[in-house]
Structures are given as C-alpha cells and as structure tokens.
Amino acid sequence: MNPILLDLGFINIKWYSVLILIAFIIGYFLVINKCRKKGISTSIITDMCFYLVIICLLGARIYYCIFELDYYSQNIMDIFKVWEGGLAIHGGIISGIIFIYFYTRHKNLDLLELLDIFAPALALGQAIGRWGNFFNSEAFGPVTSLSNLQSLNIPKFVIDGMYIEGSYHHPTFFYESIGCLLIFIVLMLIRNLKNIKKGQVTSIYFIFYGIIRFIIEGLRQDSLMLFNLKMAQIISILMIIIGIFLLIKPYIFKQKVKN
Hints:
The protein has 259 residues and is mainly alpha-helical. It has eleven helices and seven strands. A hairpin with a 4-residue loop joins strand 1 and strand 2 (12-14).
C-alpha cells in the first residue's frame, strides 16, 4: 500500500496522520455534543481537548520509543519523526487518563463522568485510526492463505493490501478496527440507560477493548515486548481488571453503606 495520500513536492501528507486527525475531530464533536447535553462547559472541555491531543500523542510516542529503546538510543533524531508511524495506543490512553485526572481536579469536574463521555469517542477514534496501519503495511498478523481470508468475508481491497513480501497475512488492524467499532456502538447504546452508573461506560470499554486487544495481540508480528511478554497483552489484562472493578464498584460500596 502507498502510505502517502498527497505528494505536494515540499511535503508528503500521509494517510496515517490524516486518519488520526479525522479521528480526533470526530471524537471532539462527539464529546462536545454530549457535554452540551449534560450542561458541562464546552469552553472548558475544548481547552482540555486541545491539551489532551498533545499529551496523548506525546504519551503514545514516548511509550513506543521506550519499548524500542535499542533502536532509538542509536537513532535519537528518529524519535521526532512521528509522521513515520510508531504510536502506541496504550501510551496515549495512559497519558490521556492521567491528564484528565489532574485536569478534572483543577477544574472541579467529575472524573468518571468525563471518562464515560470520552470512552465512546475513543473507541470510534481507534476504529478509524487503525486504518493508518493498513496504508503503512504494518500491524499485520501471521502468514495465511488467500482462500482463508476470502472465507472470512474480508473486503478484497483489504486482502490485496495484506499481500506483503510475497505472502498473505491476517489483517489484524482490520480485526481491531471492527472490534472497536462494535465497542463504540455498544457504548452509545448503553450510556443513556437509566440504571447505568458513573464509570460503567468506561468499565465496559476497558473490559471489551482489553479482551479484543489481548486476542488480536496474540496474532500480531510487531508487538512491543517486555522480556518475552507482549506488553499490549499485559496492559490488556490490567484494563480488564480495572474495568471489572469499575463495573462492580457502585454495588460494592452501596452494599457497605447498607451494612
């Protein structure tokens, strides 16, 4: 696949960066629309989103570089070449949540309420952003056969794009994109339920994405490693644990109050 969307001569505009930008813009409007309905100051949220984009990109890049330290310690200037790829979503999520935590404390906002607002937008953003991996011919899985991919009803253009270095590969980016899109739909359906508690939309995102990413990461060929363990699978397990805690937390504390 050609990673370049537009060649302007003096600069190349890549699919990867454009898709990330689109994901941020759509996510922003989803968040603002929900905040407006909840009576949360949109000017405060707009300011937060401006810094959040920067923090998440930095966090995603730093996280990636840490686990590719052997290369980047020898090629320092390549750390700044974000346009070439190398952003880890887990780094963006971790840095983003930390930033939102301190921002909500500073602005006297409800952390869990905001995380619940951001969760669907994040899932949709991931579904969109994963296609950057497609155009970069990265984040693919093991070698497979053409007939196997066709049996999975994967679009032909995706299958064609997964013919890399003489072999067909599982399009793990595609699997994750579909998974994130389904998470987005689920979160949008449940977030307005009467019995939903604060933090539970976020908890369902953590649980579902943790499960999906853990499974898909087992197929990926370019995982960031911690010794012999795939770092994304470690983080996915932690996400599932945190998600389960957030899901049952309202009922646990309610029971303690009754006792």
